Amino acid sequence: MTFHNNVFFKNYVEAKGSNFAEAYASKTPKAGVSIRQKPEPGLEFARFAIALAAAGGNIVHAHEIAKHRYPNERRVITSLKAAMGAGTTTNPTWSAPLVDSYQRFAGDFVEFLRPQTIIGQFGAGSIPSLRRIPFNVSIPAQTSGGEGYWVGEGKPKPLTKFDFSEITLGFAKVANIAVLTNELIRFSNPDAELIVRDQLAAALIARLDTDFVNPAKAAVANVSPASIINGVTPIASSGADIEAVDTDIKALVATYLAANVSITGAVFIMRATTAFSLSLMKNVLGQKAFPEISLTGGSFYGLPAIVSDYVPEGTVILANTREIYLADDGQVMVDASGEASLEMSDAPTNDATTGQGASLVSMFQTNSVAIRAERYINWAKRRTNAVAVLTGAAWGDGALGS
User: 66 and 41 in contact (C-beta within 8 Å)?
Assistant: First the structure.
């Protein structure tokens, strides 16, 4: 076998042919073509995190580990190399390509994350996108319409008054820390990489989805946004049969019409169990009453439907995507440490005297590594009437016509 310029050639074969040209052609090695399969979404990010974790957060060591463990992952290797020396992100031959590599596969993790979240499903398929705006940009928002008046000849014209407010989406970040044992990292294989990826994704998904549709989630200044249904007066469901479904949807749409909010761009958001119950409901002829909705979503009354188990039980949301602002960095930042001490709790506290959490666990003492992921994202309703909420929906639960 022969290797030349990283191209694999098969063994030379015996010369054949009736002249020099044919003999030369028969002796010329033929290159074997190798096609590298693109890794599963999020795996490059997981490999970056594993290399960083295996090195205990040491970038130099992580770079060497990545070269040894993932020799074909050029973007992972060059991204870890990016922090080894000084440079500028505008230099076309030094740091700029390295920064670009990290953004690409960090973005790859976000793309893996997005379809699994409520927010991530906006803009996918037939579901319209939320209104995207940059961070820290003030946007004037009109909260009331003006009026026109009939005016008689020679009469004074009344003034028209408009009400405005201002919306600014500041920097807000959602973060998680996943703790992995050194054994898992050291003896990792593709399965372990999936574990790392899924652990980081699962925590971010839970936080984003819960806070996006939790009615009790109020805004915390300079920390986190309110849910899109926080402060919205809910409508109580009228029953469980098909007629009740019609009545409930009419009530939701009526709130839009009363507030002069266009139904165009509206999306239903509901639990998977609610969508499944709707898909099973049948009319008096035994036909499916709502054939276009299923356990995974679809459409409902001609509007797209997003399904998530983080929607409160019995809650159905009608949200107008044009009336909800979203600021999203689109990247995930990752860091790792094998020396930190963590409070192993999803509700850490700080001691008033020491400023430290209680019951700290040493990563060094327990042969563990903590991987931290952060994503900058924020949202806000353009106006309160952008969302209508139905509560107590138990459609299809043993009722006549279900």
Answer: no
Q: Looking at 49-53, 193-197, 277-281, 362-366, which range is the least confident one? A: 193-197
Helix (H), strand (E) at residue 289: none
User: Residue 259: which of 131, 143, 391 has the closest Cα?
Assistant: 143
Rounded to whole angstroms, the Cα distance separating 73 from 52 reads: 14
How many C-beta atoms lie closer than 10 Å to residue 130's C-beta?
Answer: 23
Q: 368 pLDDT exceeds 70?
A: yes
* DSSP H helical ranges for 29-88: 43-54, 59-69, 74-81
Measured distance CA(306)–CA(129) in Å, rounded: 12
For residues 113 and 209, the answer to whether their CB atoms sit within 8 Å is: no
Tell whether the model's pLDDT for residue 23 goes beyond 50. yes
**CA 249 to the chain's CA centroid:** 28
Amino acid identity for residue 260 in this structure: N
Asked if the structure places residue 374 within a domain, the reply is no
Residue-wise pLDDT tens digits, 304-314: 999 998 999 99
Asked if residues 342 and 283 have their Cβ atoms less than 8 Å apart, the reply is: no
Residue 262 sits in a domain of what CATH number?
3.30.2320.10
Phi, psi of 276 (to 5 degrees): -65, -40
Residue labelled with tokens 């699962």: 202
* Predicted TM-score (pTM) above 0.85: no
Q: How many domains does the chain divide into? A: 2
Q: Which of 74, 95, 116 is the last residue of a domain?
A: 116
- Torsion sign across C-alpha atoms 226, 227, 232, 233: negative
